[in-house]
Fold this protein.
Amino acid sequence: MTETGQKRVLLAAPRSFCAGVDRAIEIVEKLLKTHGPPVYVRHEIVHNDNVVRRLEALGAVFVEHEDEIPEGEICVLSAHGVAPAVRDNCEKKGLRVVDAVCPLVSKVHAEARRYADSGHLVALIGHANHVEVIGTKGERPEQIVVVESPEDAEALDTNGQPLAVITQTTLSLDDVASTVDVLGERFGDLRRPGAEDICYATQNRQDAVKEIVRKGATLLLVIGSPTSSNANRLVEVAQARGAEATLIDGESPLDRELLDGHRIVGLTAGASTPEGLVQAVLTSLAGRGYEEVEEITVAREDVHFRLPREVYA
């Protein structure tokens, strides 16, 4: 492909931090300011290496299990949520728990309990090894089954129980549609939360990517960490629509060959990626001749989640 015309960048909006990520990071920052380090965080507070490194420099200590935290210390629960057994263990250890779980994740946990306690088998559509799914399944482990794909849906045996469906928040309506369709065909009337229970940020960021590709971007750069589910989904959304797409960290220099043959480049960032990395990549792209930037806006986000009272205690 030969390059003709003006090089330009189509910049996604919304992009970067969602309200749940904003809240989680602010909780850790405020606790560090009020109590001083160390503040222990169970699991990465959000799935972004840049954010984790910055908070570590301020005195946050990230651990994979609450047993690693000394008795009496603060334990921040990450945005992804945990199983009830984790909270129970924290209480037994005398830890001071501060809940940074995204309220939309907490809402999915509540749906899981409600459906399971009303006699339903709960199909949790998501990635079995993702920390959010592990936490949600832990609400009612005997009555929740993880369904990762349409193939899993075809193989599901409900033993005659009525079926309810919930989803991992970092998946959009599009991501789960084919799996839900199979479940609907096999089991008829499914109980499911309303569309408003889908994470607004996941859907908006994917919709922005679709619009960027529709407007002619042949390459999409997604700033995010490999562990970020929603960032990886953005890559897949662009690829499914015929564009090349790749995950970048926003800090390393762009490969010289990456932009070859692409006049229009799309740029977005996962929901746990700081906006500062977006601006750094824009500067890098400008240095490669992509000085014209057009923001592609598909939604306005004005969501804000209240901080837990423990932050002010």
Remarks:
- The domain at 19-101 is CATH 3.40.50.11270 (Rossmann fold).
- The chain has three domains: 8-17+200-297, 19-101, 104-197.
